[in-house]
Design goal:
The complex is a heterodimer. Chain A is mainly alpha-helical. Helices cover 74% and strands 2% of the residues of chain A. A two-stranded antiparallel ribbon of chain A has the order 1-4. A two-stranded antiparallel ribbon of chain A has the order 2-3. In chain A, helix 1 packs across helix 14 and helix 4 packs parallel to helix 6. Chain B has two domains: 156 residues, Response regulator (Rossmann fold), CATH 3.40.50; 137 residues, 3-Layer(aba) Sandwich (Rossmann fold). The chains are: A mainly alpha, B alpha/beta. At the A-B interface, helix 3, helix 11, strand 4 and helix 13 of A face helix 2, strand 7, helix 7, helix 8 and helix 9 of B.
């Protein structure tokens, strides 16, 4: 059996700092409440995180390409409301593709503005955040959407069903993460995304179509949002107009926590998944500990900053590192 | 003779004009955030309908879109337009006080609707028209306690409590009403946990999932509104935990349906139509110089599976 040299250990630490932080938190929470690591609880946390997680997968592409997407929260509200409304009007078989088509149009529009008109993605998606919210309110007339026949529809399978003993939202999350992870790591398109975000000018000189690459990143993001909306709608079979409100920042936090750089060019799907799980398990762990709610806000962000610090310290190989 | 006649005619005219302006009252309203939820959407429709049904009332209906700055600007617009009374659904109980004071100083009576402003603004307000959320919380506690007694578990039942958005007055008052009343009516019932669900069905479902993992024995769930109550119910159903008594507040259509299906025990019936009509009536009464109580609550009765037939299904 090969023994690891000190250097090898150092390099593993540097690469997987965030994973180590994750494991440490899991152990700490399990000690605090042994029920934390039961199968039921783990399933319920990952199932809840799947919605945020699926959205974060798409945003990972956008962030690696050097852009932002703050519109995902209100876009998710839009998808949820649309699919619930169409469910009763044209049936679930038609409602799902129709909702995907509408959400992809929004993604294509954002991709066009950022990619081809070269507008600042922060402004575009911030604007779309409120424009899409307005669109959702107009569409629904401000009413909550509910499916009339909640017991009789097979539509609930995406959010409430299980296959092989595993909740379907988790399976969707895993499948999408695998698909998008491979796309990013192993395909020419994935390498283009890194190139565009890492050094746009160099990418242009290498003949990489920057606009098209950015456009497709937003399309992927929209597809992920539509999937998240589908899970959300199917999970509760009814929804408020504001269901996704504020999720854009949680999604971004998960992506950055996973180690993607806001400047673009770095990050992986796997690390985003870890970022999502850390956020989900922190929330759940604090609930199980029974901390008073007001403290939870503070503790959540202390833990997140601790995780980022552990990650960066492992990369640098030292804990203390001032701006020189 | 001639002069006297003219004088008389002028006096009559002035009197007539005075009477006419007293008859058609111009009432302005600035709402919180129409369209953000079904309650507020229905409220606006009901308000406009009630105003149209009354020939003596002319209204200026505005909406702040949840934005404090816009609401303050709207208050100033209404003062400029010299409306006879202003109804405000505050976007923020503190921040709107200066604008309310300005209206009051301009001699325009201000009526607060649905959620009250902070106490230091009370001097500038003629009346608050809305639900009594502390009583609502207390009534929910009574509904739950009565059901426990009927089941014979009033001495050992354990309750979890899911509140609305932290910091939101309605959430605080309902939680307070429930927490104060429950030990009075059912002293041996234990509340084992309390966490916010932020008025959000999905969030509430997550909170309930964690409760179900944490506690093997839960007999009752109180949620600050039916939207959250149904979220909690979904979690219990998914986990296969039967026999839990769910009580909410602000009966929503989803809550009403869950009651009809026998899954959800009770709630508080709060109609946005009553809310809107009460606000308009309070404003009219104030303008007619009638004595109006400062806290002018409209009634929000208990609704359970037993008496739900007396109520129509909420439209929101």
């Amino acid at each position: 059996m090969a023994t690891l040299t000190k250097q090898q250990i150092g390099s593993v630490l540097a690469k997987q700092g965030i994973l180590i932080a994750f494991v440490i938190f899991m152990i700490a929470f399990t000690i605090a409440n042994p029920k934390f690591l039961t199968m039921d609880n783990v399933f319920s946390v990952v199932r809840s995180s799947a919605i945020l997680g699926v959205m974060a997968l798409g945003v990972t592409f956008v962030v690696i390409s050097g852009n932002l997407d703050l519109s995902v929260g209100s876009m998710m509200s839009f998808s949820t409301i649309v699919v619930l409304d169409l469910h009763d009007k044209i049936g679930p078989f038609m409602a799902i593709p129709a909702m995907f088509a509408m959400t992809l149009c929004l993604g294509a529009f954002i991709g066009f503005l950022v990619g081809y008109l070269r507008l600042n993605s922060l402004i575009v998606t911030l604007g779309m955040l409120s424009a899409i919210h307005g669109l959702t309110l107009t569409y629904s007339g401000g009413q909550n959407m509910d499916i009339a026949d909640k017991e009789g529809t097979w539509f609930s399978v995406f959010g409430q069903g299980t296959a092989l003993g595993i909740p379907v939202p988790i399976l969707i999350f895993i499948a999408l993460a695998a698909l998008l992870g491979l796309t990013l790591a192993k395909t020419p398109f994935g390498r283009k995304v890194y190139a565009v975000g890492g050094n746009g000018t160099a990418a242009t000189f290498s003949g990489i179509p920057r606009a098209r690459t950015v456009f497709f990143c937003y399309l992927i993001s929209a597809a992920c949002v539509a999937t998240a909306g589908l899970i959300q709608a199917s999970r509760s079979l009814g929804s408020q107009n504001t269901v996704g409100q504020g999720l854009e920042l949680e999604v971004l936090a998960a992506v950055i926590l996973g180690g993607a750089s806001l400047l673009g060019g770095s990050g992986t799907v796997f690390k985003t998944v870890i970022g999502v799980l850390i956020l989900g398990f922190i929330q759940n762990g604090l609930l199980l500990m029974g901390l008073q709610f007001y403290i939870q806000f503070v503790v959540t962000w202390v833990i997140i900053i601790l995780a980022v610090w552990l990650d960066i310290a492992a990369k640098r190989g030292k804990l203390w590192s001032a701006i020189a | 003779m001639n002069i006297r006649y003219t004088l008389a005619a002028t006096t009559a005219l002035v009197a007539f004009a005075g009477a006419a302006s007293a008859d058609t009252m111009k009432i302005g309203i600035t709402q919180n955030n129409v369209g953000v939820d079904s309650y507020q959407t229905t409220y606006e429709k009901a308000f406009i309908a009630a105003a149209e049904a009354n020939a003596d009332v002319e209204t200026v209906v505005l909406d702040a879109g949840g934005d404090v700055a816009r609401q303050i600007a709207q208050m100033e617009d209404l003062i400029q337009q010299e409306v006879d009374a202003i109804i405000i659904w505050p976007t923020n109980g503190e921040a709107v006080i200066p604008a309310v004071r300005k209206a009051s100083q301009a001699g325009i009576p201000v009526i607060v609707t649905n959620s009250n402003i902070a106490e230091q603004g009370f001097d500038f307000v003629k009346s608050f028209s809305g639900p009594d959320n502390i009583t609502q919380g207390a009534r929910s506690a009574e509904i739950m306690c009565d059901k426990f007694k009927e089941m014979g578990i009033e001495n050992e039942a354990k309750v979890v409590h899911i509140t609305g958005q932290p910091g939101y007055t309605t959430a605080i008052e309902r939680a307070q009403g429930f927490n104060d009343r429950l030990p009075e009516v059912c002293p041996n019932v234990e509340q084992i946990d309390q966490q916010p669900g932020d008025w959000n069905r999905e969030k509430s479902q997550q909170v309930m999932e964690a409760f179900l993992v944490k506690y093997d024995d839960i007999d009752g769930v109180y949620a600050g509104d039916d939207n959250m109550g149904v979220g909690a119910l979904n979690a219990a159903k998914a986990a296969g935990r039967d026999g839990i008594i769910f009580v909410g507040a602000t009966n929503f259509a989803v809550g009403y349906e869950a009651m009809a299906a026998g899954d959800y025990w009770g709630s508080i019936y709060q109609s946005p139509v009553d809310d809107a009509e009460a606000a308009l009536k309070t404003a009219i009464d104030v303008l007619n110089g009638e004595e109006v109580p400062f806290l002018n609550y409209f009634d929000t009765p208990k609704i359970t599976q037993d008496n739900m037939g007396e109520f129509t299904k909420p439209v929101f």
